[in-house]
User: Fold this.
Amino acid sequence: MCEKNKTWDNSEYKSHSSRHLIKGDNSFFVIGQALPVFQEYSYEGRLLNNYDLTLIPEIKKQIHKYENEQKAPNSHFIMIQDIYYANGRIYILIANDIEQYKCNIICVFDVSKDIKHVKTFFLSEDIYSTFCVFDNQIVAVNYNACIDVFRITEI
Assistant:
């Protein structure tokens, strides 16, 4: 049995409440799937940092597109497909077309002190669903059921 110990509520994000959650070395991170907010919390639940993802040009472009296009009733979109933590950095797989769920861009954030965007990678023209990072490589699964390996040359 799992007992509920504490709830950290932030109801202002309710309309886009689906979020990714990942553990870092000294804190945990919450990143919205559709809401462009990146938050760091202490293990006690205290908000430590808040980063506006619209500072990233590719995300700003997608938010602008979403806000200025007519949407179907009860439509849903995902801007952040997947996230991964490795070596003090968070890697975020973002959509380049939120209506079609075409994801092939990875934004890298250094989170060792504060949340700081350090690099953006464009993987290829393929569409990716998930990925991981190790040994200076990004390994990503594309929608053609293939696994692509990309070498990280610099950050």
In short: The helical segments are 57-68. DSSP finds one helix and eleven strands in the chain.
